[in-house]
Amino acid sequence: MPQIIEITDFSAPELDVYARLRETQLLNRHEPENGIFIAESPRVIERALDAGCIPLSFLAEKKHVETEAKELIARCGEVPVYVAEFDVLTQITGYKLTRGMLCAMRRPPLRTPAEVCTGARRIAILENVVNPTNVGAIFRSAAALNMDAVLLTPDCSDPLYRRAIRVSMGTVFQIPWAFLDEQMLWPEDGIAFLREQGFKNVAMALRNDTVNIDDPVLQKEEKLAIILGTEGEGLLTETIDGCDYTVKIPMSHGVDSLNVAAASAVAFWELGKHNSTGGE
Length: 280
What we know:
With about 280 residues, the chain is of the alpha/beta class. It has two domains: about 5-105, CATH 3.30.1330.30; about 115-270, Alpha/beta knot (3-Layer(aba) Sandwich). The chain is built from twelve helices and twelve strands.
C-alpha cells in the first residue's frame, strides 16, 4: 500500500528534492549511483518506470491521487506519496506542475559510449548543446525518427534535467544514450572512436562544400553518426574538418539556418528513413 502523506511542513527534508536542491546537486553526474532526477507528468513517469528507473517518492496534487496518478502509485508499492492542494504545490515548486504530478527517481547507471553504439546503424552526436529544451527536443526527434542512440560531449546539458525530460516526453528513457568520456578529447579522440565503431561521420553545418542531405551516397552508408552543434555557434571547425561528410539543409526565403532541434528532426528523418533497426 502507498504511504499517502499530506504536506503540512514545507521545511520537511523529504521535500528538498522538489523544493530546495538544484538539479546539478540532484543529478550528481560524477557519482551517478547517488544521483536523483525528477520526472514530471504521468506519461513521463510511466516511461521512466517502464525503463526500470527506481522511484523514491511522489509529489502530487491531491485530486490526482485517485485519478490520473492512481495506477502509477499502485506500481510503486510503499513509496511515499506527498500530496497537497494546487495552490500549496505551486508555492512549493515555484510553478505549475504538468498535470499535477512529480516523481523523484534514482538516476540509472550511466552507459558507456561503446555500449550504446553496439548494434546501432544511425546515431546522433550532440556537441556542446547546453540548452535543456533543445536537448529534450532532439531526443524526442531521435526516438521518433529512426536514430538508434545518442552520444553527448561532456559540456552538453544533462538529458535528465527536469526540463529536458519533460520536453522529450520521456523519450530519454527509451533511446540509449551516453556521455563521451571526459578523458576523450573532442573532436579528435571522439571522431576517431566513432570511426573505430564503424561509423562515417556527418557534420551538419552551414558550409558551401557540402553534400546534399538526400544524396544517395549517404543512404548507402551502413553506419552514420550525425553530429549537431550548439545553437548559434554551430559545430567546431575541427569537428567539421574531421568528418567524412558535411551536410547543409537547403533553406528558402533568405533564412540562413534552423534551430538545432528543428534541424535535428529534418536530418534524422532524411538520414534515418532507411534505417531498418528503428531504435529501441
